[in-house]
Design brief:
Low-confidence stretches: 7-22
Number of strands: 12
CATH architecture: Sandwich
Strand content: 25-35%
Number of domains: 1
Shape: elongated
Number of helices: 1
Structural class: mainly beta
Length: 196
């Protein structure tokens, strides 16, 4: 009959401790001191009027007989290059309370339009177009009813920024006819969008 070797009560624990010490004598493997973590996100482009109600007309006097220049500014919020287009409904100020009657008076008046874009890269100014050039099919460079077409902002954005529409007309005495009495109007639509 064989006898088993007897180990002292702490023998097993001592063997494990020796293995742990021997294991720590093995060569150390180099580890990285830093870790690169890539974080990415997408900010979608946005472009629009940041307030719907236009500011009051600056410098406006409701008198078509005298030369006038006035403007209205609208704030924009565009985090990408953009363009603003202008479209006139009638292409002139039209008498809405009277009609041509052979009296020799004029019942409409042409006006001028300009745009200024306030951008992160400075102001962008258009040339002057006449009102009959901003109607559908008109040949004004910034005439458009399509968002993203019209006067471009270059590489600038409008966050914040704005667009100023300036309207002018000449003194009636410089034209061939006087204006008939009545109310005159036209509708001008501005559109803005990320540049197409």
């Amino acid at each position: 009959m064989r006898r088993r070797a007897r180990h002292p009560a702490g023998g097993a624990a001592l063997g494990l401790a020796i293995l742990a010490v021997l294991g720590s004598a093995a060569p150390v493997v180099a580890q990285d001191a830093g870790v690169d973590i890539t974080v990415s996100a997408v900010i979608p482009g946005r472009c629009g009027f940041s307030r719907v109600a236009p500011t009051p007309l600056r410098g406006a006097t409701p008198d078509l007989e005298t030369a006038q220049t006035f403007s209205v500014s609208l704030p924009l919020d565009c985090n990408t290059p953009f363009a603003v287009g202008v479209r006139g409904e009638k292409g002139r100020l039209v008498n809405t309370t009277g009609a041509p009657d052979g009296s020799g008076y004029a019942f409409d008046k042409t006006y001028g339009v300009r745009l200024t874009l306030e951008t992160s890269e400075g102001d962008v100014r258009s040339g002057r177009c006449l009102s009959d050039q901003i109607v559908a099919g008109g040949n004004c460079d910034f005439a458009s009813d399509q968002p993203g077409r019209g006067l471009g902002s270059g590489s600038g954005i409008a966050a914040p920024g704005g667009v100023t529409l300036t309207i002018d007309w000449p003194d009636q005495s410089t034209l061939n006819q006087r204006l008939a009495a009545g109310d005159y109007s036209d509708t001008i639509t501005l559109v803005v969008g990320a540049r197409a």
